[in-house]
Amino acid sequence: MATASFYGQIAANRRNSVLLSLVVVALLGALGFAIGGAASGSAGTGAVAAVIALGAGLVAALLAYYAGDALVLASSGARQVDASSAPQLFNVVAEVATAAGVPMPRVYIIDDTAPNAFATGRDPQHASVAITVGLLQKLDREELQGVMGHELSHVRNYDIRFSLMVGVLVGAVALIADMFLRMTFWGGIAGGRRRRGNDGGEGGGFAAVMMLVALLLAIVAPIAARLVQLAVSRQREYLADASSVELTRDPYGLERALAKIALDTEPLEVANRATQHLYFENPVKAATAESSDLFSTHPPVLDRINRLRQLTGEAPVDAPSAVVGDRAPVVSAQLRGLGAGDSGSGPTPPPPLPQPPQPPEPPETPPGFTWRGWR
After folding, report:
1. Which of 78, 203, 294, 298 supports an S-S bond with 130, CB 3.0-4.6 Å?
2. Hey, is 128 helix, strand or coil?
3. Which sequence positions are flagged as catalytic?
4. For residues 214 and 180, is the Cβ–Cβ distance under 8 A?
């Protein structure tokens, strides 16, 4: 099997993300142009309406830009921790942040035993990472590094900002389409067009064509934009996986982390469909089981694992369990530095590995004697 380069995967994923985002912008502009042309019968007015639609999407994105991270952390019930309360977790995050060349993010703990994590923040200077207690209980240090590499890659690649902008544009498409359909239903646009036609106004044929186009786009554009948003989300997950390997130089820990989280059937209680795209792996287990790849916020775990295996030239596997095998060490939350009260009732940590035999002590020497002779 040919070995892939994570640099090549990073470049391809970034290119695909930008192209998909331009599709959303084009849909928003086309919808605005069609509605403006249908309402006025003029291409010039349609162009103005397209600019207004794009401007409205930009304003909405800026409003969400500054308040989105605080809302997500609050809705997840995350509590901030420091180096004294979670020393080993802080150590792992600091190591990966140094490798990524980003400032140390704020670290939060979510009191939920389902293993997962997410990053949020508009830029590296305002970033936060949130980790569930279950992730700390069920992953070893190497696997935790892989997950933190993935999340801090989202920060370094400005994925949160990127996804926010795309999401707001998708919402703007749906909002404008809904407004147009309601106005058309109540006769606001069609009635005005008929009055202009009776007055002998120009552009009646153009307005009729634009009305049909606008109706079609109002129905299709929100669905298409949502599908594009999901495709962008999946591309950014692939990008973060490849970037994590770039930071840690270790695909194996990330592979095992993906497999363990996928095989864990416990749903994350604090997650919902509005925040599921932020997490390392889709926390809504019902959505993961029922959704097709086209409507999923995350790529299939098996596909993510096999892409990582391409980086080392290994053969693909048929199931996540093949990656974990018999290697499933469980480390208690106490060893992560959370304290006895936060550790839960998880399994006890594995016994320490046996120490190698020590070399024999050198023989005692008589007083005044050295290995170079008598003093």
Report:
1. 78
2. strand
3. 151
4. yes
- Contact criterion met (CB below 8 Å) for 104 and 80: no
**Worst-scoring range by mean pLDDT, 114-118, 281-285, 361-365?**
361-365
Contact 239, 107 (CB under 8 A): no
Render pLDDT for 58-77 as a digit per residue (tens, 0 to 9). Answer: 777 677 677 677 878 888 88
DSSP string, 79-121: EEE-TTTSHHHHHHHHHHHHHHT-PPPEEEEE--SS--EEEE-
Q: Using CA atoms, how far apart are residues 335 and 176, in angstroms rounded to an integer? A: 52
Measured CA to CA, the distance from residue 355 to residue 63 in angstroms comes to 58
pLDDT for 372 equals: 45
Strand bridging mode 373-374 / 79-81: unpaired
Positive/negative CA dihedral, 47, 50, 52, 55? negative
Q: Using alpha carbons only, give the angle 77, 80, 84 rounded to the nearest 5 degrees.
A: 145
pLDDT tens per residue, range 90-145: 999 999 999 999 999 999 999 999 999 999 988 889 899 999 999 999 999 999 99
**If 0-12 CB within 10 Å is exposed, 13-18 middle and 19+ buried, where does residue 141 land?**
middle
CB 1 within 8 A of CB 311: no
The dihedral over CA atoms of 235, 14, 76, 113, expressed in degrees to the nearest 10, equals 60
Query: Which tokens sit at 7?
Result: 């640099």
Structure tokens belonging to residue 328:
């499933």
47: exposed, middle or buried (C-beta count within 10 Å: 0-12, 13-18, 19+)? middle
Q: Identify the residue whose tokens are 């959505």.
A: 287
Tokens of 306: 């096999």
